[in-house]
Write a structure and sequence with these properties.
- With about 210 residues, the chain is of the alpha/beta class.
- Helix content is about 50%, strand content about 15%.
- It has eight helices and five strands.
- It has helices at about 20-30, 45-55, 65-90, 100-110, 115-125, 145-150, 160-180, 190-200; strands at about 5-10, 35-40, 95, 135-140, 185.
Length: about 210
């Protein structure tokens, strides 16, 4: 009988290097003989990718906070059903560039809906389908500089004011404090390979 795979999500604010580290961590796990599926949110399945287009394009006022949270939850439910759960049942590891904690931090914390309200919205969509480990990349210094560097190609959420992103950072730290076993803060400063080593250290207990 195939052992269930592990589900790891990488989180953090804009410019923290999530996409780079998803690829690097996936490569490191494959070197250890694990079969890895890389995913992203919003997206990761055909239906969720369609919702991604609706969420990230267009003017800031396109969606209100509640509608935005519901759209993310719908995309996440489809992502879990169509991509994540089947891969885990087949024994694969799943690395996702964002998952539920982004909604908790962005729409719940920074967006003013409240973390628990957004958690309740998502509870219907994903049930107990939380990641086995969530790794939040943090930039103690330079976060604003990294966001400014990446702002030219920002989507409607990434391009929000700096004050909004500071609230996102705070919300991630609150979530980590509330769920220290599942959610780990990872220093994202330094060379990329150093960050990857820290990520591997944070999931050592999950490795076969």
């Amino acid at each position: 009988m195939t052992a269930r795979g592990k589900f790891i999500s990488l989180e953090g604010g804009e410019g923290a290097g999530k996409s780079t580290q998803v690829r690097a961590l996936a490569a490191a796990l494959r070197q250890r003989g694990l079969e890895v599926v890389e995913a992203r949110e919003p997206g990761g399945s055909e239906g969720a990718e369609k919702i991604r287009e609706l969420l990230l394009a267009g003017p800031e006022e396109r969606w209100g906070a509640r509608a935005e949270a519901l759209l993310f939850a719908a995309a996440r439910a489809d992502h879990l059903d169509k991509t994540i759960s089947p891969a885990l049942e087949a024994g694969r590891w799943v690395l996702s560039d964002r998952f539920i904690d982004s909604s908790l931090a962005y729409q719940g914390g920074a967006g003013g809906l409240g973390i628990e309200a957004v958690r309740a919205i998502n509870a219907f969509g994903i049930g107990d389908g939380f990641p086995d480990r969530t790794l939040v990349l943090t930039l103690v210094e330079g976060g604003a500089r990294a966001r400014a560097r990446d702002s030219e190609g920002s989507d409607r959420i990434g391009g929000r004011p700096e004050g909004y992103h500071q609230k996102v950072d705070l919300a991630f730290r609150l979530i980590a404090a509330e769920e220290p076993e599942r959610v780990k803060l990872i220093d994202a400063s330094g060379e990329p390979h150093e960050v990857t080593t820290r990520l591997l250290d944070a999931i050592q207990d999950l490795l076969p």
